[in-house]
# Entry
Amino acid sequence: MFDHDSIPARKWASNLPISHTVGHSILAVDNETTDDVADIYNRAGDDYVSYADGDPSQPFAFDGMHAYADRCVWAVLEKKLTDLRASGASSIRLLDAGCGPGTWLRRLVIRAHALGFSSITARGFDIAEAQIQWARLAAGNPSSLPGVNLTFDVADLADRLPELDASVDLTLCLYSALSHLPVACLPEISKEMARVTSGYCITTVRPIGSTPTAFVDSIEKVCRLKQDHVRNRCEIDLSDGRHIAFSFHQFTAAELRNYFAGCFDIEDLRGIDLFHSRFMPDSRWNPVSPPGDGQLAVELERLEEAHASRQEFMDRATHLLLVARSRRAAAPTACVVAST
Ligand SMILES: C[S@@+](CC[C@H](N)C(=O)[O-])C[C@H]1O[C@@H](n2cnc3c(N)ncnc32)[C@H](O)[C@@H]1O
# Structure
């Protein structure tokens, strides 16, 4: 029999006080409830792009709501691109699983082109058709660059990937796409990513102790939110009348590592945004930041770095970042030798 308590996230959750504020079942009483992940991201509308990524015409501004985490993720991705280019590669293949509006793939393609890659093949896919339509629309400029083949498809992460074995240099699965999948599928999904990846697979998910999110809109629009860690289900009532309910799993760091460690070498696992969001002023409540906050930003950065890999902090970060290296990839030292 499947032992639910063997799942680390459930063990973590079992130590939490039980909430008595579940309220009514919105599924039972409200036929406006959206109960399908694809539907929720389909209905999120054009506003989702600016909510998730800021101004779509400024992909490197990193000044949106998730700016700090985005900058951390981008630093990792950009380093992988520059390392690959420095190793002498002139072609690169990228895959973004659960790409949403495709912003991360666009960033990578633009940067890879600027770094001098002469052949860039990039595919993003998502279960939500509206997200893919947006991604195709926004892909206009980068996909017309010479040597670039940028495509977006509607597809399910739970299915076999069409990519050949070891055909992808960089596989992304960012901002909780994995959290929407049934936990029982995760070992197969990570195995499938390992099959197609020759370089690195980079994922971010929400840890078990992260702060609440409304997923498709800003948190101040939430009237009621309940995450059920036993059923891996999140229910949200939004102030505009929308009710959304969908599969969502929050991970412990150890659990995320376990899903990938069987088929990849884990290069990095850390919490992102332990302190920054907490120190962000809220214009509805706080006065303008006092002068001298530049020094505070430096200190916050130091604190993030000092605690990012500590178990008790990782599980309470806003995001968990995992960098998994394909077992086929040359060890980093070998790359240096190859480039001389
Ligand atoms: C929070 S969004 C993140 C989007 C994108 N990765 C980013 O960082 O901007 C999560 C995405 O996962 C997608 N998703 C959820 N379940 C999926 C599945 N089974 N297959 C493919 N995509 C899925 C959703 O449609 C949504 O676009």
Notes: The pocket of S-adenosylmethionine is lined by residues 37-38, 41, 52, 98-100, 103-104, 126-128, 131, 156-158, 174-177, 180-181 (CB under 6 Å). DSSP finds 14 helices and ten strands in the chain. Residues 67-86 form the longest helix (20 residues).
